[in-house]
Design a protein that fits this description.
heterodimer; A: 334 residues; alpha+beta; Aldehyde Oxidoreductase, domain 4; four-stranded mixed sheet; 30% helix; 25% strand; B: 160 residues; DNA polymerase, domain 1; 2 domains; five-stranded mixed sheet; 35% helix; binds FE2/S2 (inorganic) cluster
């Protein structure tokens, strides 16, 4: 009877979004009379930072500071249609829709500025700080605040834009079954080191080292926070969490946090995160969906590490002491 | 059911309410007084999201009957900022990106505040111990632990 060490590796591809009957998201952008920009979406921010990322994307496209953009995700009944924030699709689908809407709004904004400055709209550029100027002659400029006032009160123009991003439905080819179920893929690889007590079946995760390839990290700090949380969640799914410990039977399923095993701050493995950026061809500024995939590779990595440590393959989750002991018993019985 | 009057101080201001004897402090704070900073995660004492400070002690407001709080000094996360300036713990949570959905955050901050009030220079183990009654779905805890340690460092620098 001993504590045995093992190391496991796993790598994954993870799709961004899904493809059932087509996968659309719509966005609307309009300026307020004082030159702030409203983005109206039905895509919900559930803590992953959707609002911040959409504000950055809109601001970058229109050419204004991020704090000039307000994101309104108030109401899925009345807002422009979105399939939802799931399948790691939020940044990719909604981001592309916001870019299209913001481009249209920017065009109107430049047209109004051109009338005010008595130049051609195609000769204008934004300075990123709230002004529009003539290319090569920045002393000839107008603030976006004044452009918006002019559009609203003088010229009767709506500085606004419509965006729709659709991944059309993909049908399987009759002969081969091949289809395109999603768009770009994020990738990840995890190495996990564990200790397994072969008397109690208990697993301790010592270290988790992750590399994530996520396209362009539009907000590196928020990407990091998502990956750190996700890596921990992957470990938690590998070892602890389930609503159906004897699936498909519902018996002994946890109904509250007394019975549902949810690790606290005392159960953390030493965690390392490395981000690789390989911009996607079809994502907003090269982004992919890092959300869900970051909690996946730890699970097979831990299963492989347990195999490396004690020589049993556990192929049902979570990898509980009970499952390990049963497998060790079966192995000993030959 | 007969209602009983209860009076206490919430973040320094007097509050008076009529509550039923089964009303929890969590319900009284959120639905009667309108301080929604304590969150109801489990309503049975297992998640820590509803944590508040009562007379200097960390308490679960979902397991505290409002009528037992007569005369108490109750503190919640909503009362931490002073004239618009965030409390060092709030600042540290922001800087460390220690919040995602934010549901656990007020409870975490209350637990951390009681720790720092008693132990201004805590070890990592002290922080883990102090937060062990609070669960978080999103962050993986490490950023929260780092935020509490950073707030402690900021406090001791200000004091020095
Ligand atoms: S709501 Fe009070 S501990 Fe969960
Ligand atoms: S930030 Fe979401 S539960 Fe902690």
């Amino acid at each position: 009877m001993a504590i045995r060490r093992g190391r496991g590796v796993a790598a994954i591809n993870y799709p961004t979004g899904m493809n059932l009957g087509g996968d659309p998201t719509q966005a609307l952008v309009h300026s307020t009379p004082t030159g702030n920009f409203m983005v109206t979406l039905s895509s919900v921010d559930l803590g992953q930072g959707m609002k911040q990322i959409m504000a950055q994307i809109c601001a970058e496209t229109i050419g204004v500071p991020t704090d000039r953009v307000v994101i309104d995700t108030a109401d899925t009944d009345t807002g422009p249609h979105c399939m939802g924030t799931f399948a790691s699709r939020g940044t990719h689908r909604a981001g592309n829709a916001v870019i299209q809407a913001a481009k249209e709004a920017r065009q109107v904004m430049l047209e109004v500025a051109a009338e005010e400055l008595e130049v051609n709209a195609s000769d204008l550029e934004t300075d990123g700080e709230g002004n529009i100027q003539v290319k090569g002659a920045p002393q000839k400029s107008i603030s976006i605040f004044d452009v918006a006032l002019s559009a609203h009160f003088k010229r009767g123009r709506s500085i606004s834009g419509r965006g729709m991003f659709l991944i059309p439905r993909s049908y399987p080819e009759k002969e081969t079954g091949a289809m395109k179920p999603s768009t770009c893929y994020a990738h990840a690889c995890t190495v996990a080191e564990v200790e397994v007590d072969d008397e109690t079946g208990e697993v301790t995760v010592l270290t988790v080292k992750n590399v994530f390839e996520i396209g362009r990290a539009l907000n590196p700090k928020m990407v990091e926070q998502q990956l750190v949380g996700g890596s921990w969640m992957g470990i938690s799914h590998a070892l602890y969490e389930t609503t159906e410990p004897y699936y498909p039977s519902r018996d002994h399923g946890g109904t509250d946090f007394n019975q549902y095993l949810m690790p606290g701050p005392g159960d953390l493995a030493e965690t390392e995160i490395i981000v690789l950026e390989r911009p996607s061809a079809d994502g907003p500024f090269g982004a992919k969906g890092p959300g869900e995939m970051c909690a996946n590779p730890q699970i097979p990595a831990v299963a492989n590490a347990v195999f490396d440590a004690v020589g049993v393959r556990i192929d049902t989750l979570p990898i509980t002491p009970e499952r390990i002991l049963r497998a060790l018993k079966a192995q000993a019985a030959g | 059911m007969a209602k009983v009057p209860v009076q206490f101080t919430l973040n320094g201001s007097e509050k008076a309410e009529f509550v039923e004897s089964s009303t929890t402090l969590l319900h009284a704070l959120r639905d009667k007084i309108g301080d929604t900073s304590p969150k109801g995660g489990c309503h049975q004492g297992t998640c820590g999201a509803c944590s508040v400070i009562i007379d200097g002690e960390l308490r679960l407001s979902c397991l505290t009957l409002a009528e037992t709080c007569g005369g108490a000094d109750i503190r919640t996360t909503a009362g931490l900022a002073e004239s618009g300036v965030l409390h060092p713990l709030q600042r540290a949570f922001l800087d460390a990106f220690a919040t995602q959905c934010g549901f656990c955050t007020p409870g975490m901050i209350m637990a951390a505040k009681v720790l720092l009030d008693r132990t201004p220079n805590p070890s990592r183990e002290d922080v883990v111990e102090a937060l062990s009654g609070n669960i978080c779905r999103c962050t993986g805890y490490e950023p929260i632990i780092q935020a509490v340690l950073a707030a402690a460092r900021a406090n001791s620098q200000n004091a020095a």
